[in-house]
Amino acid sequence: MSHPYSLVEIVWDDACSDAGWHTAKTLKFEAQKVTTVAFLISENKNYLILGHTYSGDDFVGWFQIPKGMILSMKTLKRAKKGQRA
Which residues pair with 38 in a beta bridge? Predict the structure, then answer.
């Protein structure tokens, strides 16, 4: 099946937080590496916009990732030739 958007796998370093009580000495820097598989809707020099589910040109759920947080990006299925990203 040809898709009008490329299907991509993004591995990226996510932000994290915890609302509980901690002492400064116990806090450590740890990578929060996550993987997202989605349709690439759009990108510019700073961001990617990804869609989770689409029908026609409508998306249920979208996601923006700053490119500076991306560790790797792999195209799993290219968009139909002459179509979108």
Answer: 8
Structure tokens at 12: 């990226």
Helix or strand run (H / E) with residue 64: strand 58-66
Digits of tens for pLDDT over the chain (85 positions)?
567 899 999 999 999 888 889 999 989 888 899 999 999 999 999 999 999 988 877 888 999 999 999 999 999 999 876 555 5
Does the pTM surpass 0.90? The reply is no
Round to whole Å and give the CA distance between 16 and 22.
14
Tokens of 80: 């139909």
How far apart (Å, rounded) are the C-alpha atoms in residues 39 and 6?
6
Q: Which two tokens stand for residue 65?
A: 């990732």
For the record, the structure tokens of 79 come out as: 């968009």
d(CA 83, CA 15) in angstroms, rounded, equals 33
